[in-house]
């Protein structure tokens, strides 16, 4: 069950996704 996943793992996963999204947006803006 997914209920066994620790909260820290979820937070870390979200931070990584947000970081990649921000990095992609910054590269896209600088490319213009």
UniProtKB/TrEMBL annotation:
Would you kindly state one Gene Ontology biological process term found in this protein's UniProt entry?
A: photosynthesis
TM segment ranges: 6-27
Q: Which UniProt keywords apply?
A: Chloroplast, Electron transport, Membrane, Photosynthesis, Plastid, Thylakoid, Transmembrane, Transmembrane helix, Transport
What is the protein's membrane topology class? Single-pass membrane protein
Compartments where located = Membrane; Plastid, Chloroplast thylakoid membrane
Q: Does the keyword Transmembrane helix apply?
A: yes
Q: How does it assemble?
A: The 4 large subunits of the cytochrome b6-f complex are cytochrome b6, subunit IV (17 kDa polypeptide, PetD), cytochrome f and the Rieske protein, while the 4 small subunits are PetG, PetL, PetM and PetN. The complex functions as a dimer.
The family line of this record is: Belongs to the PetM family.
The function of this protein is: Component of the cytochrome b6-f complex, which mediates electron transfer between photosystem II (PSII) and photosystem I (PSI), cyclic electron flow around PSI, and state transitions.
Q: What's the protein name?
A: Cytochrome b6-f complex subunit 7
The organism of origin for this protein: Dasya naccarioides
Gene field: petM
């Amino acid at each position: 069950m997914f209920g066994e996943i620790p909260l820290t793992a979820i937070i870390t996963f979200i931070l990584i996704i947000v970081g990649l999204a921000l990095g992609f947006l910054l590269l896209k803006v600088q490319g213009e």
